[in-house]
Specification:
36% of the residues lie in helices and 25% in strands. By secondary structure, the protein is an alpha/beta fold. The strands form three sheets. Strands 4-1-9-10-11-12-13-14 form an eight-stranded mixed beta sheet, with helices on both faces. A four-stranded mixed beta sheet has the order 3-2-7-8. The chain has a two-stranded parallel ribbon with strand order 5-6. β13 and β14 form a beta hairpin. α1 crosses α9, α5 runs parallel beside α6 and α9 packs antiparallel against α10. The two termini are 17 Å apart.
Length: 302
């Protein structure tokens, strides 16, 4: 695992207003459903990862876009309450809004409103260059435009910062972004986009890890669909199956928490097994509640 301690991180990714609704059953087209629980939350993958990393003891700066509106101001205030540096958050347009509707079986419908103005641009990244130069690690959320992520990755590599990539970037930028990354994490669908075949069993997952590590990253984590998560490094490969006795209320945010645990433990120089354990515990904690907000305080002791 990476021996360098990482305490200062910058997260490039989405910042959004989330509304999570728990219903007895998902309604058919034209029908309605009573809502048993409703939660308004700070959300978006970038915000979830930034908050999770902060809860795991790192100093974190968020770089993303919120609207020049009341919702955007509220999301910035929420990040600040979580101890996240918001100097790199851009204000323009309207804030992204995510609607998460979940039934008792954890089946869900996700509706996303992400205006073009809410996506990072290369200029946004350049304005955050100082934060990148001062960071031990830079986290890139691949749902952002590839050209902006590539600027961040190149800045990070020139500064000697570790690069952690979550997801599958736009195809035109994927090869260079993966090769720039020290850590790559992908769910089953994202991993298939990166390697070109379905991760339907452990053998396919191990082959995906091997192929991705050959492209540059030293640590790779991929989801094997419906089974669990594989984590691979120079120390080998380890698998964390989904527990039959685990409570799953809402799968929103599970991957973000896994990524936060993976990055934090890698940066602290933990063993492969211990790193995979933290990532899996972080994900299991989040999916046990509605809404995807991380609650990872106390999971590690420095």
């Amino acid at each position: 695992m990476t021996p360098t301690r990482i305490d200062r991180l910058v997260v490039f990714g989405q910042i959004a207003q989330d509304l999570a609704l728990a219903v007895d059953e998902l309604p058919a087209v034209g029908a309605s459903a009573d809502v048993g629980e409703a939660r308004w939350l700070l959300g978006g993958k970038g915000a979830n990862q930034a908050v999770g990393l902060r809860q795991l003891g790192a100093g974190v700066a968020a770089v993303g876009v919120v609207g020049d509106d009341a919702i955007g101001a509220a999301m910035i205030a929420a990040l600040e309450r979580d101890g996240v540096d918001v100097a790199g958050v851009v204000r323009r347009g309207a804030t992204s809004v995510l609607l998460d509707v979940v039934d008792p079986d954890a089946d869900r419908m996700l509706f996303e409103h992400t205006p073009a103005s809410a996506l990072l641009t290369p200029d946004d990244v350049e304005r955050a260059a100082r934060s990148v130069r001062e960071a031990d690690a830079v986290c890139l959320q691949a749902q952002q435009p590839g050209d902006a992520l590539l600027v961040a990755a190149r800045l990070a590599r020139r500064s000697g910062s570790l690069v952690a990539l979550d997801g599958a970037p736009d195809a035109a930028f994927a090869e260079e972004l993966v090769s720039c990354a020290h850590i790559v994490r992908a769910d089953a669908a994202e991993a298939e986009m990166l390697v070109g075949f379905a991760l339907s069993d452990l053998a396919a997952g191990r082959e995906a890890c091997r192929l991705l590590r050959e492209r540059g990253p030293s640590v790779v984590a991929v989801q094997v669909k419906g089974e669990g998560d594989l984590v691979a490094s120079t120390a080998g490969t380890t698998f964390r199956p989904y527990g039959q006795d685990e409570t799953v209320v809402d799968r929103t945010g599970g991957g973000d928490a896994f990524f936060a645990g993976l990055v934090r433990a890698t940066g602290l120089g933990w063993s492969l097994e211990r790193t995979a354990d933290l990532a899996a515990r972080a994900a299991a904690s989040v999916v046990a509640r509605l809404g995807g907000r991380p609650d990872l305080v106390g999971m590690i002791a420095d």
